[in-house]
Amino acid sequence: MIIILKNKGATLVETLLAFSIFISCIVLLISFYVLGHKQNTNIFKQYDHYLLSQEKKEKDLWIQEDYHALMNTVLR
Asked: pTM for this structure?
């Protein structure tokens, strides 16, 4: 009977260890997902900022009346 109790105790410890590993993996996956989502959002914000700055540059170029200066600026 003492041997059976020791096995149950060992089984409980093994179960708790396996459960803690499982929970750690779940937390790790969720944190990777959150970090990936943050990075993706940051990349989209940077890309939007880049597009807006390029649009402003294009508008500034087309406002110029001198087509030779415009061509030199574009081809530079």
From this structure: 0.57
